[in-house]
Amino acid sequence: MRLLDPRTFRDACGVFATGVNIITTHCDGHDHGMTANAFMSISLDPPLIAISIAEKARMLEKIQKSGRFAVSVLASGMGAVAWHFAGKPNADLRDLFDTLDGLPVIRGAIATFSAIVHDEILAGDHTIFVGHVQSLAGSGGDEPLLFFKGKFGAMENTRTTAACLLQVETELMW
Predict the structure, then answer these.
(1) Does the CA dihedral 79-84-87-92 come out positive or negative?
(2) Is the Cβ–Cβ distance between 54 and 23 less than 8 Å?
(3) Interacting residues of 150 by C-beta distance below 8 A, sequence separation 6+
(4) Rounded-to-integer distance, Cα 26 and Cα 86, Å
(5) What is the largest CA-CA distance in the chain?
(6) Sign of the C-alpha dihedral, residues 58, 63, 66, 70?
(7) Phi, psi of 60 (to 5 degrees)
(8) What is the pLDDT of residues 108-155, one digit of tens each?
(9) String of DSSP letters for 15-81
């Protein structure tokens, strides 16, 4: 079996653009958060989502202890918030949290989900938490913050792009 260079593997995965999320929980009387891009929907019935947390992340133990987590999908202008929870604290950022179902969520996020841990799966150097969604909320209208090739960014004019795709799709149907 051929071994892959971890940096090469990471760079290859980095060309898959993802949304940027803050994973939060409440444990031992404190709110905890971390930036992550490993989030996805799993099932509509029941409503399940999944997050992936590195074994070295402090958040792993906090979610295991609380049995709950929340996901806040960041809007395109929230790069400073993403960096804050990615280990580069910004003292100028204050009053970041709202509450959803008793869990901290990021104020101004375009979607938020609160979940109870449904399953925990060890996968290499990460743990995948499958969460049963209890509540969700969304402000709507904003574009998501994206992560691509190690940088934060935003989508280009999605209304124009959507209109072009619709036009192409319509032309292909004829």
Answers:
(1) positive
(2) no
(3) 14
(4) 18
(5) 61
(6) positive
(7) -55, -55
(8) 999 999 999 999 999 999 999 999 999 999 866 689 998 877 767 787
(9) TS-EE-EEEEEEETTEEEEEEE--EEEEETTTTEEEEEEETT-HHHHHHHHHSEEEEEEPBTT-HHH
pLDDT in the model for residue 4: 84
Low-confidence ranges of the chain (pLDDT < 70): 1, 13-17, 139-141, 151, 157-174
Which residue carries 């996020």 as its tokens?
A: 109
Residue with tokens 């997050």: 51
Fold adopted by 6-173: Pnp Oxidase; Chain A (2.30.110)
Residue in the structure block whose two tokens are 């399953």: 119
Buried b / exposed e along 39-66 (16+ C-beta atoms within 10 A): beebeeeeebbbbbbeeebebbebbeeb
Residue matched to tokens 């992550």: 36
7 token code pair: 């940096």
Q: In the structure encoding, which two tokens stand for residue 137, read together?
A: 């909320």
